[in-house]
Write a structure and sequence with these properties.
heterodimer; A: 7-stranded mixed sheet; 50% strand; globular; B: 107 residues; mainly beta; 7-stranded mixed sheet; 0% helix
Chain lengths: 115, 107
């Protein structure tokens, strides 16, 4: 059974940093692209970033480009999202998903950017 | 960037009704489209891939159709557990883009 466990969210001040993790199990992690999708409170879904199975290709939404970095450790079956220069508008639940199609989703981790 | 226009943004329906939700892409995306269902406080659930293929375990009352720029999600007979918000997602090109969502409420 595919399982994705998101973690690392919390309260951070504007301009601060946070690193999200997604622990994957139940599939050959290195064979699949992975993505992060977020959802601001009461709003719709927004794609944030994707990474290829090898980690050699990465893609970002314009809203986070230059501030967020997606990466993966295939030896540990873990996906990461390093978030720097955080803004109030980054406040959201962040989900990791398997593939860019979003076949499976983590439970989400809440990031709150506030002073 | 490809814009996904989803309609309606909300609808009220009764159990047993046939419900149709539409997503229009600002340019052709072949059949690179998926549909998701989200209930309050929960992660989205993948329903349809490649515009018309049913994800394993999804009830057959859900169906998808379309190609190019216009896509439809149909629920043939609405059940109580189907009241939720539905989203489309295009994955033809980056940046990936979601539709704005359709909230299906009880009439």
């Amino acid at each position: 059974e595919v399982q994705l466990l998101d973690s690392g969210g919390g309260l951070v001040q504007p301009g601060g940093s946070l690193r999200l993790s997604c622990a994957a199990s139940g599939f050959t992690f290195s064979s699949y692209a992975m993505s992060w999708v977020r959802q601001a409170p009461g709003k719709g879904l927004e794609w944030v970033s994707s990474i290829s199975g090898s980690g050699g290709s990465t893609y970002y939404a314009d809203s986070v480009k230059g501030r967020f970095t997606i990466s993966r450790d295939n030896s540990k079956n873990t996906l990461f999202l390093q978030m720097n220069s955080l803004r109030a508008e980054d406040t959201a639940v962040y989900y990791c998903t398997k593939t860019i199609v979003g076949v499976n989703w983590g439970q989400g981790t809440l990031v709150t950017v506030s002073s | 960037d490809i814009q996904m226009t989803q309609s309606p943004s909300s609808l009220s329906a009764s159990v047993g009704d046939r419900v149709t939700i539409t997503c229009r892409a600002s340019q052709g995306i072949r059949n690179d489209l998926g549909w998701f269902q989200q209930k309050p406080g929960k992660a989205p659930k993948h329903l349809i891939y490649a515009a018309s293929s049913l994800q394993s375990g999804v009830p057959s009352r859900f169906s998808g159709s379309g190609s190019g720029t216009e896509f439809t999600l149909t629920i043939s007979s609405l059940q109580p557990e189907d009241f939720a918000t539905y989203y489309c997602l295009q994955h033809n090109s980056y940046p990936l883009t979601f539709g704005g969502g359709t909230k299906v409420e009880i009439k």
